[in-house]
Amino acid sequence: MTDLTEDEKKQDELYREEGRLLFAGEATFMKGAVAIDGLPPIETVEIAFAGRSNVGKSSLVNALTGRKTLAKVSNTPGRTQELNFFRIGTRLTMVDMPGYGFAEAPEAKVRAWTRLVLDYLRGRTNLGRVYVLIDSRHGVKNTDTPVLDLLDKTAVSYQVVLTKWDQVKKGDRETRLDEVRAALARRPAAYPEIIVTSSKEGEGLADLKAAIVRLIAERA
């Protein structure tokens, strides 16, 4: 990351404080949608979390909001089978998308999830960014590539968030970051900055909150 000017540092501090306050406030589950006609009304800036099954999407939603059970967490891959909407304060809606890459899911169900996600990405005008969660222990895998291709094709801005960072040895971290940067280098819709997180340890959560608040400000 490049060095920040004094003004940029002050702005970053403001975003971090705004992010802390936003996610410390009210957070509620709105609804789960299994079809495009079941989506809630467009009212706020929306962000979505995408990722392979068991990458830690629900855990991250809970960690961001400081609530243990806002999003359902399961050790069973593929449990999230709908678009789950959460209202954060009055300025933000978060969406937990169905996990992908779970080979044992019925083919018909996978097709339905894929169609729902594609329709959502193409038609949700208030969608500010998709945060693509990547398990930092493994990096970008073949199962991630079709989703990144889809986001590039639909011109939906996305940013990679590495999860479970606490489980990567310190000596391997820079190599893993370099690998992910290389995988994203020529992708037109990818936001260049990678955020590393640990839902368990809390690492990187302030960075992610600040990035989300910055996005809200940019779309105001």
Automatic annotation (TrEMBL):
Pfam families: MMR_HSR1. InterPro entries: G_ENGB_dom, GTP-bd, GTP-bd_ribosome_bio_YsxC, P-loop_NTPase. Residues 43-218 form the EngB-type G domain. CDD domains: YihA_EngB. It comes from the Bacteria. The keyword DNA repair does not apply. Gene3D superfamilies: P-loop containing nucleotide triphosphate hydrolases (3.40.50.300). Its cofactor is Mg(2+). The keyword Nucleus does not apply. Keywords: Cell cycle, Cell division, GTP-binding, Magnesium, Metal-binding, Nucleotide-binding, Septation. SUPFAM superfamilies: P-loop containing nucleoside triphosphate hydrolases (SSF52540). Belongs to the TRAFAC class TrmE-Era-EngA-EngB-Septin-like GTPase superfamily. EngB GTPase family. Necessary for normal cell division and for the maintenance of normal septation. This is Probable GTP-binding protein EngB. The lineage of its organism: Bacteria, Pseudomonadati, Pseudomonadota, Alphaproteobacteria, Hyphomicrobiales. The gene is yihA.
